[in-house]
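Figure 6 in text form: structure in, sequence out.
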């Protein structure tokens, strides 16, 4: 697995919209943050385009992302936001120049599709905040963690343990991300092998019976059988619907992982929440889950 070079002041990065278009000017605050880190920020030609709910037509989004992959001057790619649409362009992207000159791709939500596709190419990427939500209230610590990761290669997260956690430790690569997107990738060439990996799951705005159905699909596909560990991030605004399953998210996941032995860390600060800590996909990390705390270190 190749890890892209760390960033340095003066490096050029690019903002793209491979999924939905920006809903507001919040991304401009993200640019200010990146510039405060000493980075030169380029806006892709179609980054602010609108095509229905997308950040431009498929052709426009494809062209921008291909430019970002190919240009050797660009050291990191920041999708402005998620939404929907990344998987529509994945199979038409050419990664030849990217493989020769790897660079960081940072994002979450719909960008889960890109991160997992890149993992198949043996290139590390970052599941973490995007410019659209860099300045979300309460997210300062996660944003500083992203800066430390990009410029110094350091990651160290220490949080209180949850009563439903399963104690244990693992040292492995992280894969996964948004649950809906992971299920969407099943059967495609963009889904990496989960065996021996630490799986991250998070989601937003899904009915609990949808969560049950998707986690059950992971189970039936054998994707929960041979994990090294499981990190359960934020499941924001996921509620019971008219069709009730009688369980919360943690209980659903515990039911469908019953019989396995790997550690499980619930309520991890990752996903559609203010404290969306960055996690490197494709690089071995250490996960320790004990009765008092959960530690994630490189």
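Output sequence:
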């Amino acid at each position: 697995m190749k890890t892209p070079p760390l960033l340095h002041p003066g490096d050029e990065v690019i903002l793209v919209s491979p999924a939905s278009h920006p809903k507001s000017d919040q991304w401009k605050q993200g640019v200010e943050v990146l510039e405060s880190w000493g980075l030169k920020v380029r806006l892709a030609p179609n980054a602010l385009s609108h095509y229905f709910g997308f950040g431009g037509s498929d052709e426009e989004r494809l062209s921008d992302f291909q430019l970002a992959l190919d240009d050797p001057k660009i050291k990191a790619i920041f999708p402005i936001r998620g939404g929907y649409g990344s998987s529509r362009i994945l199979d038409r992207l050419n990664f030849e120049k990217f493989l020769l000159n790897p660079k960081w791709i940072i994002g979450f939500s719909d960008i889960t599709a890109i991160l997992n596709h890149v993992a198949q190419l043996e290139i590390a990427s970052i599941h973490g905040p995007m410019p659209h939500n860099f300045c979300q209230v309460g997210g300062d610590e996660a944003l500083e963690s992203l800066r430390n990761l990009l410029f110094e290669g350091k990651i160290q997260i220490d949080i209180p343990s949850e009563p439903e956690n399963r104690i244990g430790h693992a040292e492995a690569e992280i894969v996964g991300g948004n649950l809906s997107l992971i299920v969407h990738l099943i059967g495609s060439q963009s889904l990496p092998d989960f065996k021996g990996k630490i799986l991250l799951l998070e989601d937003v705005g899904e009915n609990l019976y949808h969560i049950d159905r998707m986690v059950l699909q992971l189970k039936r596909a054998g994707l929960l059988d041979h994990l090294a560990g499981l990190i359960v991030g934020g499941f924001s605004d996921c509620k019971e619907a008219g069709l009730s399953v009688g369980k919360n998210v943690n209980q659903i996941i515990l039911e469908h992982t019953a019989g396995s032995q790997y550690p499980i860390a619930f309520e991890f600060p990752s996903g559609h929440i203010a404290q969306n800590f960055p996690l490197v996909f494709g690089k071995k990390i250490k996960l320790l889950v004990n009765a008092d705390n959960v530690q994630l270190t490189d």
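Caption detail: The domain at 12-152 is CATH 3.40.50.10740 (Rossmann fold).
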